[in-house]
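Internal tracking record. Fields below are filled automatically when a chain is submitted to the structure queue. Please do not edit lines marked as system-generated. If the sequence contains nonstandard residues, flag them in the REMARKS field before resubmitting.
Queue: standard
Priority: normal
Entity type: single polypeptide chain
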Amino acid sequence: MNEGDFPTLKNKSTAEFLKALRDKLETARSYSDAHAVNVQQRYITRYDKRSQEKSFTIGESVLVLQKDSNSSKVFSKGIGPAIIF
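SYSTEM-GENERATED OUTPUT FOLLOWS
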């Protein structure tokens, strides 16, 4: 390899380097924020398609699912029947 094969350095000052870095980070942050908003909205839309509002009336018998600290959500234990009052 010859000395001419190496790229030449652009000898930026520290201030110029930090300003360019700050600009790049700001661009990345703004892109990240916009992407997060889009993904969150997509998640909300998908969740709302299958969700239903639940309401209970006084005197109604219900089963209460309580998370068991030793297992996952799938294996929650039922307490009840309980009466709404």
